[in-house]
Amino acid sequence: MKRKLDANDVPSPEAAGGDEQDPDFESLGLDPRLRQALIQEKFTKPTLVQAKAIPLALEGKDILARAKTGSGKTAAYVLPILQAILQHKSVDPYLKATTGLILVPTRELAEQVQKVVTSFSSFCGKDIRSVNLTQKVSDAVQRSMLADFPDLIVSTPTRVLANVNNSALSLEKLTHLVIDEADLVLSYGYDEDINALSKAIPRGVQTFLMSATLTSEVDTLKSLFCRSPVVLKLEDKEEKGAGVSQFVVRCAEDEKFLLTYVIFKLQLIKGKVIIFVGDVDRCYRVKLFLEQFGLKSCVLNSELPINSRLHVVQEFNKGVYDIIIAADDQEVMGAPKSSKKAHEDEEAEKKEEMGSSEDEDADDQIGKQKALQSKRRRKMTSKEKDYGISRGIDFQNVACVVNFDLPTTSKSYTHRIGRTGRAGRAGMALSFVVPADQYGKHKPTSVPSAKHDEAVLAKIVKRQAKLGHEVKPYHFEMQQVDAFRYRMTDALRSVTRLAVQEARAREIRQELIKSEKLKRHFEDNPDELRQLRHDGELRAARVQPHLKHVPDYLMPAKGRKGISKEDVGYVGFSKTHENRIRKARDRNRGRGKPRKPTAGKVDPLKTFNRSRK
Fold first, then answer.
1. What is d(CA 215, CA 352) in angstroms, rounded to the nearest whole number?
2. Range of the domain at 436
3. CB hemisphere CA count around 461 (13 angstroms)
4. Is the pLDDT of residue 207 over 90?
5. What pLDDT is stored for residue 57 in this prediction?
6. Which of 114, 169, 332, 425 could disulfide-link 163, Cβ–Cβ 3.0 to 4.6 Å?
7. Do residues 484 and 255 touch, judged by C-beta distance below 8 A?
8. Are 38 and 114 members of one domain?
């Protein structure tokens, strides 16, 4: 009896009749050393992309896989490559050649992939040697690292090509090639490097293209490197973002700050939060605003040194910080669009909406990709080329994503909210939208991108509807919230443009110093990374101590529930209750001590002396 096959030529669960058990790593036939590393890293069962891609990769087939960031794509290609290297070493123990190459668009992603390679090869001894070429070291040091012929290299295309051109790296014996985040590599400005590498890489190399979407750029890479690849279009319940509740708040420009203050000061959101803003200046404006109320946060943008950015992400994932304010410089370049480019992007969005409903990712439109690609080629600096927030970086246990400034495209929105609601957890996305009649009414808090918020929101709603998700309105009881408005106005008055500029310069100076300390600290203590904090107060704006406390008379009669009608009800990942032991200790500290005699009450009228002339 034949089983019914799905789109990937894999027997469907229904056709299997429920007799087959869920696949596990034991059944994949991996080397015992790799299985031991998987047990150490607490990998119990493969994810959907791992279960489908690893067997095909072990058979030697080229793979083009579409799966969301965080779905396990890294392990899906790292494990087969390590398995192949170990098999080669078992035949020729003295083999010295670079056989694996992993190309990624950003340094942060290269660091993450290198950590996965290191953890999975931890029981392989000296049989597997890997090098991350994106580290900031001198050319002489990098040449010495490559002189020993590492088995596996992780890098951006530019660094690989530079070392190939100066003969420090040879790709003649390459057997495996991976291009991760394939839909971003060309649009990040690596098109010339990729074309040059396609000529240097030998024919017949097994190729893995991993991407969150299937676009025209992925098709270009497919034609350059692949030989009839197996296409995996994977979307399980978790990857579709089924665990993310999406809400939209329509508010004026200054009310974004008011609602942000109310949300965090009254702890309406519990757990770790990413606040997405439009540009770098906006990062520091929001951070300085929150400082007025004693709320700590750290920033993440392309201006910060790479060591600091990596450390911020690591500490956020460990739970050291609860709030990150992120400027996604890949989608907002920090400058208003020209009318011509705005027209190009508008035309691209129209092409997106005219796409086929049969394949949602075909909606990621050729026109938009070409327009954005030409824009990025002209404007992107080398620093921006190595950076991206909404894609690539693996944030863990994010309870909520706040779109303080709405992204410029529906695709960017999808990637942003993908930071939460992962690994089976519930998550929430809250977006502020400025109505057209409210745009430009409050100049100090206005941003050019907000002018098109309603048009972008319409595209977002349409795109999410295709995925079966609903974007719901979130209603605040503004009569209750208005009680806090004068405090918001008082705080914003202190966050001047000059204060933002000073904070931006001070943060860069501090992080440059920390970056050098981090570099030495990583070398000496790779497992002890908690001595440097990135969420300290900048003190660039005049801080008013009275704003840190919320007086009882401002609280609504129903408490925090009186602020909003909805009861979101998601559970935070951090403790929010007071320390019971510390509270009791403070209460009992004065007990058992003799009281000092206090003087009698003094009548100020009786002690008033009038001097006589």
1. 12
2. 244-322+381-562
3. 12
4. yes
5. 93
6. 169
7. no
8. yes
